[in-house]
Amino acid sequence: MVLREKWQHLGFAVFNVVVTHVPLHHLRLATLRMWGAKIGHGSSVGRGTSVLDIHSLRIGEDCSIGFRCMLDARGGIVIGDNVVLASDTHIITGRHDVNADDFAASFHPVRIGDFAWVASRSTVIDGVTIGRGAVVGACSLVKDDVAEMTVVAGVPAKVRGKRDSALKYSARYRRSFY
User: Fold this and answer.
1) 25, exposed or middle or buried, with CB in 10 Å at 0-12, 13-18, 19+?
2) Dihedral, 26, 27, 31, 32 alpha carbons, nearest 10
3) pLDDT (tens digit, 9 = 90+) per residue, 28-85?
4) Residue ranges of the domains in the chain?
5) What is d(CA 79, CA 36) in angstroms, rounded to the nearest whole number?
6) By the number of CB atoms within 10 A of the CB, which of 23, 48, 67, 80 ranks highest?
7) pTM over 0.85
8) Beta bridge partners of 72
9) Rounded to 5 degrees, what are φ and ψ at 165?
10) Domain 2-162 has CATH 2.60.40.1180
């Protein structure tokens, strides 16, 4: 058990301190996979993105994870296919009990369905499920589940409308030095 923890700490340091800043997309994906992340074909992770508990991260096929995202996978993160997490998005799977004498932490998974789009600088907190085809507007705080094909925005995020799309596209995106 101690050896596994040391391996995970090494992965955290190698990826988050060094590799995430290297403009070689395949190196970033290979490093994440080496430390246990499951990442589907055609997906990308932008430079500057940080990942906690790499082994608890699942990304589907043809997903685009933008620059400087924070993926706190300590409680588990499951991202479907063709999902876009725009730059500076934070997915946080843990919280502290401010009333607990020991400031105890708890962790709950975040799930993001196929074809969802989480716009720039949004934050999704622990235990939330974002449904298939849902859209989260920029700079939103998502603390409740988002139904399929629903558009939410604000702090806290509230329903703003419904998405009307056949969802027949690929979110695959990769630029040179991305």
Assistant:
1) middle
2) -40
3) 999 999 999 999 999 999 999 999 999 999 999 999 999 999 999 999 999 999 999 9
4) 2-162
5) 15
6) 80
7) yes
8) 52, 92
9) -150, 145
10) no
